[in-house]
């Protein structure tokens, strides 16, 4: 570190967001462009180089955080980019989208605001692209082995890049018309502009990875046929089978799944559609589900011009401070967090019923009622205790012309037939079963990412992609020098 007292003299400063009034009028990222670079070296200098960096362990990729903090504090961007790319294929994705469990594990966070690790990561990645420090790295020689990767989300892309660089000939099969998985159709543009995705895909093409879009394995091409054409297959198809809300009125028009709604907004941003056929414009919107997908619906509905937006969370409102007994440092605590979308909702007072921002906590949906045309018009809810028992006298009704269900995902979607055609064994919760080496019960077929781990995060997906690549490389060649940051059994740090 350039200044050993940086953590005592420099307060934490996050990447400033654009004013709410300005940013909700467009789909661009919420941050002030160019505002990170002038502050980031001083922020990196807050790293104490504590000696036992729990941030390493808290990051599934094992990112070398103190090392690149030091390099950024000294403005050695090239070396910082090298160290960052040594553990993370796509730091511009995690630098924008990761909830940063590393910051919860930062030693400084024991009694001060953590180092802005995620911001440092993002600035290194962006600077690397600006300065040309992230060139394509094609392999020096080919192995003669072929690998099919099914799915182009962060897991599939990371696996494909690692395997291509190791010399294997890799084709990525993707059923959507564009690459990127949930980062393309799911995560809104205001969280990550898609040109970041395009740039990486171009890098991968230049390295030799082949992409086949609009090709659902199991439908457009038989899974067994694919298996016979390649030396190894990696299944990275995600976990997109959504959870349902079986309450009266669910069948009404206007009660939609979040993942029916969000991709349409992505398509507007891509230029495929003028407006979304499910647009929230002028509608009273209620989002059922308090997680990040719900928050993405919130930010999207605000930008589409909803008349009102409320988000329901079945859990009680968490506190703003870590509960040291229940969730001690360095675990990732459940806290009341104000995402960019919630900040927008609070400032614009979008919700007709919520108190602080658009969220109603400890709220359980009882039923929906509709009009004579069968369209939803109201949502009826009740407050619940920690055991989800209704509290008498707390019933209320919200206006609702569009209800978005954001209740999470139960496992991989089986509609394409891939799982059945290969005869893959599943875990009791519906995800694809695999052994300690990421291998499924079918020889030469490996599974990684949300499809096998269950609904997770991009940082875990990239770690899965890197680790499965090492396993496949070993399977194909007998040994591997590729890094494997996690095992299939690793889980986030908990008490
Ligand atoms: C709305 C939303 C917002 C999120 N926001 C964040 C966030 O901000 N930060 C974060 O860390 N995580 C976030 N997540 C979670 C994160 O996106 C996932 O954990 C991650 O994308 C999983 O990566 P994956 O590659 O395993 O699967 P996916 O990203 O789901 O990719 C799987 C791909 O496989 C393709 N596919 C499926 N079946 C077939 C087939 N038969 N043939 C060919 N292709 C197939 C799919 O079309 C898809 O492109 C979010 C999730 C959602 C739903
Ligand atoms: S990937 Fe996530 S956990 Fe890892 S260093 Fe970046 S922000 Fe932290």
From TrEMBL:
Which SUPFAM superfamilies does this entry report, sorted A to Z? alpha-helical ferredoxin, Nucleotide-binding domain
To which species is this protein native?
Streptomyces curacoi
- Give the gene that encodes this protein: gltD
Recall the GO molecular function terms of this protein's record. glutamate synthase (NADPH) activity; iron-sulfur cluster binding; metal ion binding; oxidoreductase activity, acting on the CH-NH2 group of donors, NAD or NADP as acceptor
**Keyword Metal-binding found:** yes
Broad class of enzyme this protein falls into = oxidoreductase
Identify the InterPro entries for this entry.
Answer: 4Fe4S_Fe-S-bd, DPD_II, FAD/NAD-bd_sf, FAD/NAD-binding_dom, Glut_synth_ssu1, Glutamate_Synthase, Helical_ferredxn
Q: What is its EC number?
A: 1.4.1.13
Keywords on record: Amino-acid biosynthesis, Glutamate biosynthesis, Iron, Iron-sulfur, Metal-binding, Oxidoreductase
Q: What is this protein called?
A: Glutamate synthase
4Fe-4S ferredoxin-type domain residues: 38-69
Q: In which pathway does it act?
A: Amino-acid biosynthesis
One GO BP: glutamate biosynthetic process
> Which Pfam families does the annotation name?
Fer4_20, Pyr_redox_2
């Amino acid at each position: 570190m350039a200044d050993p007292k940086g953590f005592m003299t420099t307060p934490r400063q996050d990447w400033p967001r654009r004013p709410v009034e300005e940013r909700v009028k467009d789909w661009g990222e919420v941050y002030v462009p160019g505002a990170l670079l002038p502050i980031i070296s001083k922020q990196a200098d807050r790293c104490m180089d504590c000696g036992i960096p729990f941030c390493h362990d808290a990051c599934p990729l094992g990112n070398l955080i103190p090392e690149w903090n030091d390099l950024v504090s000294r403005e050695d961007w090239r070396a910082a980019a090298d160290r960052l790319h040594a553990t993370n294929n796509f730091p511009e994705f995690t630098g924008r989208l990761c909830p940063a469990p590393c910051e919860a594990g930062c030693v400084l966070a024991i009694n001060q605001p953590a180092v802005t690790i995620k911001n440092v990561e993002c600035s290194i990645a962006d600077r690397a692209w600006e300065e040309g420090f992230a060139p394509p790295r094609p392999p020096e020689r080919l192995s003669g082995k072929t690998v099919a990767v099914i799915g182009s989300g962060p897991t599939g892309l990371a696996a494909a890049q690692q395997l291509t660089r190791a010399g294997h000939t890799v084709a990525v099969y993707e059923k959507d018309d564009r690459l990127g998985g949930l980062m393309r159709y799911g995560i809104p543009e205001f969280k990550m502009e898609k040109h970041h995705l395009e740039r990486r895909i171009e890098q991968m093409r230049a390295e030799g990875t082949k992409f086949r879009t609009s090709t659902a394995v199991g439908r457009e091409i038989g899974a067994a046929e694919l298996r016979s054409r390649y030396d190894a297959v990696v299944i990275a198809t995600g976990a997109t089978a959504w959870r349902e809300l079986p309450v009266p009125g669910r069948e009404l028009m206007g009660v939609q799944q979040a993942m029916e709604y969000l991709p349409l907004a992505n398509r507007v941003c891509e230029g495929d559609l003028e407006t979304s056929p499910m647009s929230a414009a002028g509608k009273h919107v209620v989002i059922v589900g308090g997680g990040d997908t719900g928050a993405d619906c919130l930010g999207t509905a605000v930008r589409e011009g909803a008349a009102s937006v409320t988000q329901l969370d079945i859990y009680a409102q968490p506190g703003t401070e870590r509960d040291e007994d229940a969730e001690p440092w360095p675990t990732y605590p459940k806290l009341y967090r104000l995402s960019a979308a919630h900040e927008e909702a609070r400032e614009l007072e979008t919700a007709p019923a919520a108190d602080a921002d658009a969220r109603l906590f400890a709220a359980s949906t009882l039923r929906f009622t509709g009009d004579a045309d069968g369209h939803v018009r109201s949502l009826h809810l009740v407050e619940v205790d920690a055991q989800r028992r209704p509290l008498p006298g707390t019933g209320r009704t919200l206006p609702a012309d569009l209800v978005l269900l954001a209740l999470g995902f139960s496992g991989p979607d089986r509609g394409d037939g891939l799982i059945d055609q290969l005869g893959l064994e599943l875990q009791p919760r519906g995800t694809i079963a695999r052994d300690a080496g990421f291998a499924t019960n079918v020889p030469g077929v490996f599974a990684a990412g949300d499809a096998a781990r269950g609904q997770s995060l991009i940082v875990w997906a990239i770690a899965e992609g890197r680790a499965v690549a090492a396993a496949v490389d070993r399977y194909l060649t007998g040994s591997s020098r590729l890094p494997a940051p996690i095992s299939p059994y690793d889980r986030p740090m908990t008490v």
